[in-house]
Amino acid sequence: MSRSAHPAGPRHADVLPEGHYSAPAADLNALDEKVWSRTVTRDADGALTVGGITVARLAEEFGTPAYFLDESDFRARCRAWADAFGPDADVFYAGKAFLSRAVVRWLTEEGLNLDVCSGGELTTALDAGMPAERIAFHGNNKTVAEIERAVTAGVGRIVLDSFQEIVRVAHIAQRHGVRQRVQIRVTVGVEAHTHEFIATAHEDQKFGIALADGQAAEAVRRALSLDGLDLIGVHSHIGSQIFDMAGFEVSARRVVQLLAEIRDEHGVELPEIDLGGGLGIAYTSDDDPREPHEIAKALSDIVTRECEAAKLRTPRISVEPGRAIVGPTAFTLYEVGTIKPLEGLRTYVSVDGGMSDNIRTALYDAEYSVALVSRTSDAEPMLVRVVGKHCESGDIVVKDAFLPADLAPGDLIAVPATGAYCRSMASNYNHALRPPVVAVRDGEARVIVRRETEEDLLRLDVG
Ligand code: LLP
């Protein structure tokens, strides 16, 4: 199922029939560069290498399952986003996709800003040296303690998500004798074509303040009236894994209309708008994501046009890509444990991880690709379902895929495009030990998040 036509979700009708799967690729050994990170290739023996290191060596040194993150690809994608948007715009990497101290350092070095949405992410960012003024703090229910910490650290902006929060942040800022820079997150009423759980700009969900019924205008009125707040702009995030730019265009248009209304009512032109993240990536060869420069051009054209029409100064644009930066840069490496052919149905291939390291398939019906990576094979394609080792049948990593029929226990297989929302949503279900994240670059591999151990489990369990 292609994500460009994708919609997956009860709100959207065009879901492919049950049991649908694409035909096998012409060559199962080929690695589609759309879904694999940039330094991935096969060596002369047919084994997959990343950053010049073969998976056999990586598995031996770091074990499986494990996430391998292609650092030079990550950095290149940061630069591509920064270059595409240029000096008059800001790119905030959305840390929820995957955050670690190493990642924060790479972002800092590559000139990106950071969007955090919890005290834990804020702590990670500050600890690794991200300057506070380059951090945006998000969330629909920030605690008072989190707001205190963000304000006292001096974060560049807090994105206000409710009427209560407008007052809360103003009060805390005033208590600390500062004027906190803030944006107001508005709900623009756009139906993003993505799974219901990751669409965020339709009316019936928990985020933001609705543009409808003058709610957002009222929020602006209150924010402008409070001494502790410096309202710098308006924020909109319409959802995730989106390919169609139309939703962003409608959102940009509505946000600019609000800026014009604010100018008319209050005589102030807010200097910034943030259009959020949500740009889709290729999980399978059927997906066709946009390049950052196309996205930057589409967004800046529409904002410029709308501002000209409304006779507004063009505001500074910011965006918050998470998945589009980190998603394609990592793969998960698994070892095949058991293989169970079910006559007339498919073959179940069980790996040493599962829904604890990738919940996205079970949660969003997400699609992934998979390849045999410890060797090549000329065997016939076999229809498989890659499953984990957890105690439930929904523990599926890749729902429908083809692997060579001579697949055997002990083979290594890899699932590409697992950089976003896999480690960050990993769990300890069945007391699984969350896998490590290993950064690979120029022939060197180093652990940036270590594997959990049974001692870690026992340490939390105080007995
Ligand atoms: N900005 C805001 C305000 C957000 O809420 C999000 C994602 C982003 C930026 C980054 O979106 P991205 O570019 O990564 O799509 N767990 C789900 C995704 C949830 C995204 C939540 N917010 C998944 O695995 O697909």
From TrEMBL:
Report keywords, A-Z: Amino-acid biosynthesis, Decarboxylase, Lyase, Lysine biosynthesis, Pyridoxal phosphate
Where, in this chain's numbering, is pyridoxal 5'-phosphate bound? G278, E320, P321, G322, R323, Y421
Report the Pfam families cross-referenced here: Orn_Arg_deC_N (PF02784), Orn_DAP_Arg_deC (PF00278)
Q: Which residues carry this modification: N6-(pyridoxal phosphate)lysine?
A: K96
GO MF annotation terms:
diaminopimelate decarboxylase activity; pyridoxal phosphate binding
User: Could you tell me which residue ranges the Orn/DAP/Arg decarboxylase 2 N-terminal domain spans?
Assistant: 73-327
- What cofactor is needed? pyridoxal 5'-phosphate
Where substrate binds, per the record, is at R323, R360, Y364, E392, Y421
**Residues at the active site:** C391
Catalytic activity from the UniProt record:
meso-2,6-diaminopimelate + H(+) = L-lysine + CO2
EC code(s) of this entry: 4.1.1.20
Q: In which pathway does it act?
A: Amino-acid biosynthesis; L-lysine biosynthesis via DAP pathway; L-lysine from DL-2,6-diaminopimelate: step 1/1
Every copy of the Orn/DAP/Arg decarboxylase 2 C-terminal domain together lies at 333-419
Mind listing the GO biological process terms from this record?
lysine biosynthetic process via diaminopimelate
Q: What class of enzyme is it?
A: lyase
**What exactly does this protein do?**
Specifically catalyzes the decarboxylation of meso-diaminopimelate (meso-DAP) to L-lysine.
Q: Which PANTHER family match?
A: DIAMINOPIMELATE DECARBOXYLASE, GROUP IV DECARBOXYLASE
Binding partners and assembly:
Homodimer.
* Record family assignment: Belongs to the Orn/Lys/Arg decarboxylase class-II family. LysA subfamily.
What protein name applies here? Answer: Diaminopimelate decarboxylase
The gene it comes from is lysA
